[in-house]
Amino acid sequence: MSKSQKIQITWSVDDVYSFRPDLTEEQAFEVLQNVKDSHDADIGVCWEARYLELINSYEKKQQPFFPEMLALLVAGLDEKVHTTGPEDILGAIYHDMEFHNVYKGQYFTPQHVSDMMAKISFREDDQTIKENGYISVCEPTCGSGVMITSFCKAMKDAGYNYCNQLVVTAIDIDIKCVHMAYLQLSLYGVPAVVIHGNSLTLESWSRWYTPVYMLNGWVYLKILARKSLNK
Ligand SMILES: C[S@@+](CC[C@H](N)C(=O)[O-])C[C@H]1O[C@@H](n2cnc3c(N)ncnc32)[C@H](O)[C@@H]1O
Q1: Number of domains in the chain
Q2: Of 11, 16, 21, 33, the residue nearest 226 (C-alpha)
Q3: Structure pTM?
Q4: Between 199 and which of 39, 104, 140, 190 could a Cys-Cys bridge form, CB atoms 3.0 to 4.6 Å apart?
Q5: How far apart are the CA of 180 and the centre of ligand 1, in A?
Q6: Is the pLDDT of residue 130 over 70?
């Protein structure tokens, strides 16, 4: 390998067992295959290197704005959680600053309209949650994630915990939308995978797993749920 100036990393079922010793060999191998399918060579190598590459593309005097903006976002989302319930902050800013791309149909749903739609579509006596303990939601054109935040709000209002009774798959063709949805869903503690991809052609270019998605073990749980559905 060193002669051809390439490196190769090999993962085995033992690596899966170090996290989930309870899986059968067949299940552990399925997890490995899933990892292979979801692996993103661009960002999978080192987040730190990607961060340094990005931050160093800004002037020194601009760099402190980023942690400041993150702190403001955290404070804003925190206030929402404790007052209205989860809401989309970044989408409104994106529109107000006219960053939206009309050629990709980027007209985001206003929060109150989205809230009403979530109230209509989520049933308080949801059978799926009663039977399985959670509900899964797919948003194929998520934008900044407003419809997901509304769904979380509807669940919260009905007395459910969206941090462990919901799992989300969100997709957008525009990486800026993926970033917005990923940030907000991560900070709200929603288990979600946000896919940078095309919902029509089923192409996908990168996958972004929220921390709670990883902590709650959804990578494994979804595989096991799919397996039991196929039985
Ligand atoms: C009308 S906006 C709606 C966003 C969000 N669902 C809402 O209600 O505010 C449509 C979104 O779909 C994305 N989009 C357009 N074509 C897509 C495709 N083929 N696959 C995935 N996303 C797509 C756009 O980038 C945009 O963010």
Answers
A1: 1
A2: 33
A3: 0.81
A4: 140
A5: 13
A6: yes
